[in-house]
């Protein structure tokens, strides 16, 4: 039966940047905590014509490492603080994003083109994150190679750290970094493209 097989996982850390703090703890506002019980937002990007090679996966991970300093909270973990009863996003030098590598004998063109989508198949292409337990990751990623050719990038992103607009900017910046080999200059220059983490 067609399915997905997990090959392994690794942790991708944000590439060193002097602007990054050695550690940080960002508390959630009243409006943020409403999202805590909900599952992460799941996104699947399908690339039927991508040429599969070890270099592709290496580029995928290295570009993620380059873009993460601009979206630093994504490397963190949702963590319960027993002394205050709060949940915070904790980041440190050891924090990172879990990246799962998988392979599948599903037909990527059917997944992308069938008018009636098989949701069970799509869910297999996204990391299975236990959101009911803390600490828990903000971001997890799955990279799936298809035996018939093509790849899928599955993203599980907790809504407490980023809304849809932020996710769009993150994915767009990551994709451009992967293609060009460097972080888009717009993420450094345009204020509206740099995430704001102030919680005052």
UniProtKB/TrEMBL annotation:
Single GO molecular function: acyltransferase activity, transferring groups other than amino-acyl groups
Claim: Cell division is one of the keywords in the record: no
Cross-referenced InterPro entries: CAT-like_dom_sf (IPR023213), Plant_metabolite_acyltrans (IPR051504)
A Pfam family: Transferase
Gene3D superfamilies registered for this protein in UniProt: Chloramphenicol acetyltransferase-like domain
UniProt keywords, alphabetically: Acyltransferase, Transferase
Protein's recorded name: HXXXD-type acyl-transferase family protein
Lineage, broadest ranks: Eukaryota, Viridiplantae, Streptophyta, Embryophyta, Tracheophyta
